[in-house]
Every structure is written in C-alpha cells, then in structure tokens.
Design brief:
CATH architecture of the largest domain: 3-Layer(aba) Sandwich
Bound molecules: aspartic acid
Organism: Euzebyella marina
CATH topology of the largest domain: Rossmann fold
Strand content: 15-25%
Distance between the termini: 33 Å
Radius of gyration: 21 Å
Protein name: asparaginase
Family: Belongs to the asparaginase 1 family.
Number of domains: 2
Shape: globular
Helix content: 25-40%
EC number: 3.5.1.1
CATH superfamily of the largest domain: L-asparaginase, N-terminal domain
CATH class of the largest domain: Alpha Beta
Number of strands: 20
GO molecular function, one term: asparaginase activity
Strand order of the largest sheet: 4-1-5-7-10-11-14-15
Structural class: alpha/beta
Number of helices: 9
C-alpha cells in the first residue's frame, strides 16, 4: 500500500456511527471529523482518509432513492480524486442501497465498500472497529498499480461480499449478512485472502458513468398458500405500476389456478413486467422445471434466476429509470449486468 493511497469515507448513518456517553449511558452520534483521533489504528494503514458525512445521518430504514442518488453523486464528484470509497451505512437496508449503487455506477473501476456494525463504534464489544478498519484496508488494496476490487462490495464480520448478492439474515449475530449464491470475494483472517476468481473483471477503459434516475413504479409481492385473487389483482392494478418482483416458491413455482395465470397475462398485456424470484435464500429459479412454473413462462414472466430480491427490485428501478425499451426489457433483465445473477 502506498502512502499516497486516498480513501473517502462517507458516513450515512446507522449504528456504526454512534458512541456511548459513559456518563449518561446514552448513545449519541459520533463526530466523524474526530475519526482519526478516536480510532488511531486507522493511522497505521498508511493511507490518507478524508471523511464526509450526510448532513443528517439517518437510520437506514429511512433510505430512499434520493439518498442513493446523493451517494452516487458524491462518488462521481470525487471519483478521480480518491483511490477507493468506504460507505458507512445502517445494516438494515444496506443490501438494498449497495445493490442500487452497483447498478447506478456503470464501469466502476475503483472499490466502493459498504460496511456498518451491529454494535456502536463506542461500545466495548463493538464489531465496528474491525469492520471499518478492514473495509478501509480493502478499499486501499492494489496490485500492479490497479485496485484489487473494482466493484461495489459489502464487508461484514471478516468477509467481503459482492454487494448485490447479499441479504441481511440476522438482527442479532455479528455475522448479519449472507451471500448464498456467490462466494466471498475476500476473507479476513491473520491475512487478507483475496479470491480473484470471484471478483468482477476489470471494466477496462470503458468510461465510468453514473445513472441517477431510479423509478418508483415497482412493487414486491410474496406468494403464500391461500393467497386470494383480490390480493394479486390489487397489487397488479396499482395505478402506474410498471414492474413487480414476485417471490415464488422453491425453484420459481406458483399455484396453477387459472385466476393467477389470467392476472399475469392481463398485466403482461398492459406492459407490466413481472420478475420471478425465489423465496429461498439460496438456489435459483428454473422456469419450466415443474409444471407449476410453465404457466409463468407462457405469461412472459421474467426469469430472475438466482438474483436476490434486493438486487431484483433495485435493478427494476434502474432499468425503468434508464427507459429500456419494453421489447428488450426481459432480455436485458435476464442478463447479468454487474454480477448480480449467473
Ligand atoms: N437500524 C440500524 C440501521 O439500519 C441498524 C444498523 O445500523 O445496523 O440504520
């Protein structure tokens, strides 16, 4: 790592940025301008860290596309100036924000590493320090003068994952995230172990481009046994709805009752795009494997393959915002754009 490596740390909010006031016992927001004083270990990393914080740090439950666009714009504005970016974010919706950013940042050739923590940075047993320090270290990793990571990653509890492959799976354990359909990119033990084959290839000389229009004409519907026609219809009939993530069973299966096929066919006629994503945390949709998914194929339902719900909904927002032609929409969605599906 060279002394000249520059990292921009962006604080958006969440538990990680809190410290305990040991006199009162209360949690309060951490002053990030004091970061290096508070965590002197960061000085040993031999890189220059600048910090920028959201004016009003937020709990990640309040994140929306305006915040994503702000984040993407910050990275765009500082792209040439820094070698890597670390985004501190609440863990609750971190997989959504980081998936969204993976689509918004096209031809990314520098690391953008999301991290957070289950316990505040000022807590005695905190996981924040390791998550933060290792994320900075990963963002500063280079090989032959090139950044090792050239994609949006999520680092938590000793593992760097491809962000758009992750899901928050635990509200209690330090290991809060899983990426069941793609192996870790880097593991942190005594040394950092980089799994090169799992990383996205260099996007080469293609120009970095930031997309800032995200549609909100989308919804998610999770199927459940005994779901009534009126539930399905009322979702598909939402005024202005352009696309729906439909969480199905197992390898992409749904009831074969005629009302379901009819509702989907009517939606397809109106140009509503429906994506088939499995409710299982691991594995893939295989359309047509069972009779219970053949009718979805006939209704032009998009095959979400092994994509997460978080990546599917943000990919829909991105593709609708990019005004992909309805004719190409299914093909483009079924293509892996940022390593989000096989
Ligand atoms: N509720 C918090 C948030 O997502 C939890 C965390 O930071 O991990 O902002």
């Amino acid at each position: 790592m060279s002394g000249a490596t520059k990292i921009l740390l962006i604080y958006t909010g969440g538990t990680i940025g809190m410290v305990k006031d040991y006199k009162t016992g209360a949690l309060k927001a951490f002053d990030f301008s004091e970061l290096l004083k508070r965590i002197p270990e960061l000085n040993q990393l031999d890189c220059k860290i600048d910090t920028v914080s959201f004016d009003k740090p937020i709990d990640s439950s309040n994140m929306n596309a305006r915040h994503w666009i702000h984040l993407a714009s910050l990275i765009e504005a500082h792209y040439d100036e820094y070698d890597g970016f670390v985004v501190l974010h609440g863990s609750d919706t971190m997989s959504y924000t980081s998936s969204a950013l993976s689509f918004m940042l096209e031809n990314l050739a520098k690391p953008v590493i999301f991290t957070g923590s289950q316990l505040p940075i000022g807590d005695l047993r905190t996981d924040a320090k390791e998550n933060l320090i290792t994320s900075v270290q990963i963002a500063a990793l280079t090989e032959n003068g090139q950044p090792v990571v050239q994609e949006v990653g999520l680092y938590f509890e000793y593992k760097l994952y491809r962000a758009n492959r992750t899901t928050k799976i635990n509200a209690e354990h330090f290991q809060a995230f899983a990426s069941l359909n793609h192996p870790p990119l880097i593991e942190s033990g005594v040394h950092l172990k980089v799994y090169r084959d799992n990383l996205l290839g260099n996007s080469g000389s293609k120009k970095f481009k930031v997309h800032k229009i995200m549609s909100d004409d989308v919804a998610i519907l999770k199927l459940f046994p005994n779901m009534s026609e009126k539930v399905m219809r009322s979702v598909l009939d939402i005024p202005g709805l352009k696309a729906l993530v439909m969480e199905t069973y197992g390898s992409g299966n749904a009831p074969t009752e005629p009302w379901l096929s009819n509702a989907l066919n009517l939606a397809a006629e109106r140009g509503v795009q429906v994506v088939n994503v499995t409710q299982c945390s691991g594995g893939s949709v295989v359309m047509g494997r069972y009779e219970t998914s053949k009718h979805l194929q006939s209704a032009q339902v998009i095959n979400g393959k092994d994509i997460t719900t978080e990546a599917a909904i943000t990919k829909l927002m991105y593709l609708l915002g990019s005004e992909i032609s309805p004719k190409l929409f299914k093909t483009v969605f079924e293509t892996s754009l940022r390593g989000e599906m096989r």
